[in-house]
Amino acid sequence: MNTYDEIGRDIIGACMEVHSALGVGLLENTYKRALAHELNLRGHFVETEVPINVKYKDVEIADAFRADIIVDRKIILELKSVREVNDIHFKQIVTYLKLSNLKLGYLINFNVASMSYKEGFWRIANGLI
Predict the structure, then answer these.
(1) Rounded CA gap, 89 and 21, in Å?
(2) Among candidates 123, 110, 14, which has minimal Cα distance to 75?
(3) Closest among 68, 13, 11 to 44, alpha carbons compared
(4) In a 10 Å sphere around its CB, with 0-12 CB exposed, 13-18 middle and 19+ buried, how is residue 15 labelled?
(5) Torsion on CA atoms 83, 53, 70, 127, rounded to nearest 10
(6) Domain coordinates in residue numbering, the chain
(7) Which of 97, 56, 99 is nearest to 77 (CA)?
(8) Which of 6, 14, 31, 92 has its CA 20 to 30 A from that of 58?
(9) Longest Cα pair distance anywhere in the chain, in angstroms?
(10) Predicted pLDDT at 116
(11) pTM exceeding the 0.90 threshold for the entire prediction
């Protein structure tokens, strides 16, 4: 069974591979499909556009949001292809983590000159893992 760190290394490597092959300037959906394929090639169970329900008081709200990618049923990936990642993007992934009860997520922006922790991705934890 892969640990969070092992899966994380594969996610980062897959992002770098996709970014290197496709470059910048494409739509988020293109990167999502390529990244899902790359993670599958690396042996991971990958789900895309996963509907997440939210309970509000006594009502179940179906499809409250859709997770871009969930890897090995452990890590949520929120993909972007934007000029600049803003606070709202960080708030979005934090909220998604809380609502999905997942412990770890990555915010990934493919619209960068080079993929790195300074530009392309951020690791966000929901509590201790």
Answers:
(1) 25
(2) 123
(3) 11
(4) buried
(5) 90
(6) 4-125
(7) 97
(8) 92
(9) 47
(10) 76
(11) yes
What tokens appear for 79 in the block?
Answer: 């993909």
Instruction: Give residue 1's pLDDT.
Output: 62
Residue 83, Ramachandran bin (φ over 0: left; ψ between -120 and 50: alpha; else beta): alpha
Give the N- to C-terminal CA distance of the chain in Å, as an integer. Answer: 15
Kindly report the backbone phi and psi dihedral angles of residue 84, in degrees, each rounded to the nearest multiple of 5, phi listed first: -145, 135
Task: Tell me the fold of 4-125.
Answer: Trna Endonuclease; Chain: A, domain 1 (3.40.1350)
Residue 80: Cβ within 10 Å count:
22
pLDDT (tens digit per residue) in 79-123: 999 999 999 999 999 999 998 999 999 999 999 988 877 778 899
Output the CA angle 85-95-3, nearest 5 degrees.
Answer: 90
